[in-house]
Specification:
The complex is a heterodimer. Chain A is built from ten helices and ten strands. By secondary structure, chain A is α/β, with parallel strands linked by helices. Chain A has one domain: Rossmann fold, CATH 3.40.50.300. In chain A, strands 6-7-8-3-9-10 form a six-stranded mixed sheet, with helices on both faces. Chain A has a four-stranded antiparallel sheet with strand order 2-1-4-5, covered by helices on one side. In chain A, a hairpin with a 2-residue loop joins β1 and β2 (about 15-25). Chain A is globular. Chain B is mostly helical. Chain B has two domains: about 5-45; about 50-294, MetI-like (MetI-like fold, Orthogonal Bundle). Chain B is about 75% helix and about 0% strand. Chain B has helices at about 5-45, 50-55, 70-100, 105-120, 125-140, 150-175, 180-185, 190-200, 205-220, 225-230, 245-255, 260-294; strands at about 60, 65-70. Chain B has a two-stranded antiparallel ribbon. In chain B, about 40% of the residues are buried. Classes of the chains: A alpha/beta, B mainly alpha. The interface between A and B is medium-sized, with 27 and 17 residues. Bound molecules: adenosine-5'-triphosphate (ATP) and magnesium ion. Magnesium ion binds near residues 42, 43 and 171 of chain A.
């Protein structure tokens, strides 16, 4: 079943048309990768799914984005519930300058969990989700800023799984990491896709090929091609996709 | 080496030396001021014990024999400062949060200009306005024999501390990386939750520094307090009584003393006490400002 249905989505920043007639459907518990050259609108598309574009002045969105059947673009949509269901990992790890424990419990607390025992349990399971528990279980009250970048990015993912979202949006989550850390995080994605629907933006085509089941190629605000990752990379239907993945531009 | 390059190096050399000379000069001047203060201030302790000076309840510097107990003055300073802090910190921090996090860019410009304007009012002018408006109001509203009270002084000083608190706390809040706010909002936090659970804690050290610098300004303030607090060197029983502060004492009495008299030295000794207080407060502020940078 499709978890996200996008129908005729258009977005403009003032008079700049950044997303043009996007149609796509993102399937449950799979990794969908969005690729394309810089400035083509990948981040913009991702930020539609949790309505982070609302923070920017002068954004105008039309069309439909159905998440589990609800149109999230409807202004009656509850942003707080939406963002609990649809979590986002950013390009640079952005843990809060608080303790590891407080980082993870931030989400559950704002959504109303107060019981210390439950919070402790959430910290444990979330850190286990991202394979950090053994490393950090004795350092939970240290500042999260003292972790390595890879650990920070894992922590940011744990911070999301703590509120039990259904969808994880990742905007170039490995671009600040070294190759080894990147590989570790990719392994983590593989594990996470058993429980979450993941949409990942990446500049790295090998990464998209390695980890995703579905892929979309964007160019100048348009979704040129979307489908099975293996097919996109072996037999692209569109000439522009082919040029991009064979490295002729981008 | 070409001539141009050599000229440039000579110029660099002079610029560098001039800058380091001014740096050294400012340190030397501070040290000289402190030495001067110590030399005259410490002379008092030949005739009066430190103990009696700090805890004496009577300040009669020109009676015979004179009494140099500055406890009423210390308490006067503390009461006025505490009052001003209690008023200015919540309002100042709240204003900073409003300016940095809530207001629209346009309103933000107006508010920041307003805060700068408030900072630009000379304290004697504020004191004067206080005498004509605030003092009669306090007298009437609380039905007091006089409106020249510690409470009036606190309100007036709160106005002076506010610009410092607002502008430094606002800087600290604005410096909080956008990514923290985005992270919080993306987790479904409301704007308010984001502010008080992420943005304010992230700026905490800067906010503490802002408060300390504001308080430092209040303790050192002289003119306005002298005009408004009633200038009675007695131990205050409530904030609705006249008091006198350390600073006001020096300012009011320095003109009437004979150079080299015990009274003269006593005023310098008060100067030392003030110096130490402000020094510690600034040091704490500095500590917090630097902690933020780490
Ligand atoms: N806040 C904004 N205001 C105006 N234009 C914007 C804004 N954000 C993005 N854009 C423009 O929209 C287009 C798409 O931007 P977007 O960030 O989505 O690209 P991207 O595909 O994520 O690029 P990159 O790979 O560099 O991250 C770009 O041309 C960009 O300049
Ligand atoms: Mg981007």
């Amino acid at each position: 079943m499709a978890q996200i249905e996008v129908k005729k989505l258009n977005l403009s920043y003032g008079d700049f048309h950044a997303l043009i007639d996007i149609d796509l459907s993102i399937e449950t518990r799979m990794i969908t990768a969005m690729i394309g050259p810089s400035g083509c609108g990948k981040s913009t598309l991702l930020r539609v799914f949790n309505r982070m574009n609302d923070l920017i002045e002068g954004v105008n969105i039309t069309g439909q984005v159905l998440i589990e059947g609800n149109d999230i673009l409807n202004h009656k949509a509850d942003l707080i519930v939406l963002r609990k269901e649809v979590g986002m990992v950013f390009q640079r790890p952005n843990p809060f300058p608080l303790s590891i424990y407080d980082n993870i419990t931030f989400g559950p607390r704002v959504h109303g969990t107060k019981n210390k025992k439950i919070l402790d349990e959430i910290v444990r399971t979330s850190l286990e989700d991202v394979l950090l528990w053994d490393e950090l279980k004795d350092k939970l009250h240290r500042s999260a800023l003292r972790l390595s970048l890879e650990q920070q990015q894992r922590l940011c993912i744990a911070r999301l799984t703590a509120v039990k979202p259904k969808i994880l949006l990742m905007d170039e989550p490995c671009s600040a990491l070294d190759p080894v850390a990147t590989q570790n995080i990719e392994e983590l994605f593989n594990k996470l896709k058993n429980e979450y629907t993941i949409v990942i933006v990446t500049h790295n085509m090998q990464q998209a090929a390695r980890i995703s089941q579905r892929a979309g190629f964007m160019l100048l605000g348009e979704l040129v091609e979307f489908g099975d990752t293996r097919r996109i990379f072996t037999a692209p239907a569109d000439k522009r996709t082919e040029d991009y993945i064979t490295g002729r531009f981008g | 080496m070409t001539r141009d390059k050599r000229n440039q190096r000579i110029r660099e050399f002079f610029i560098e030396k001039t800058i380091s000379a001014s740096g050294i000069a400012s340190v030397v001047i501070v040290v000289l001021i402190f030495v001067f203060l110590l030399k005259d201030g410490l002379s008092l302790f030949k005739i009066e014990s430190i103990q009696d000076f700090l805890s004496g309840k009577l300040w009669y510097p020109i009676s015979d024999p004179p009494k140099f107990g500055i406890l009423p003055l210390i308490l006067g300073s503390i009461v006025v400062t505490a009052g001003a802090t209690a008023i200015s910190v919540p309002i100042g921090v709240a204003s900073a949060i409003y300016i940095a996090e809530v207001s629209s860019p346009r309103i933000k410009e107006y508010l920041k200009a307003g805060v700068e304007l408030l900072a630009a009012i000379p304290s004697v002018v504020l004191g004067f306005i206080g005498v004509v408006t605030l003092v009669p109001f306090v007298k009437q509203f609380f039905n007091l024999p006089t409106g020249l009270t510690a409470f009036s002084g606190s309100i007036m000083l709160a106005f002076m501390a506010m610009p410092t608190i607002v502008s430094i706390a606002e800087d600290a809040l604005t410096a909080v990386p956008r990514s923290y706010r985005e992270g919080a909002l993306a987790l479904g936090a409301t704007k308010w939750q984001t502010i008080y659970k992420v943005t304010v804690p992230s700026a905490a050290s800067g906010i503490v520094a802002a408060v300390m610098l504001g308080v430092g300004r209040v303790i050192g303030e002289t003119m306005a307090v002298m005009m408004i607090t009633g200038n009675a060197a007695v131990i205050p029983k409530s904030i609705f009584q006249p008091v006198r502060t350390l600073t006001a004492t020096i300012a009011a009495e320095m003109g009437e003393t004979v150079r080299g008299s015990d009274h003269f030295y006593a005023l310098f000794a008060i100067g030392i006490v003030l110096f130490l207080i402000t020094f510690f407060i600034n040091m704490i502020a500095d500590l917090y400002l630097h902690r933020e940078k780490r």
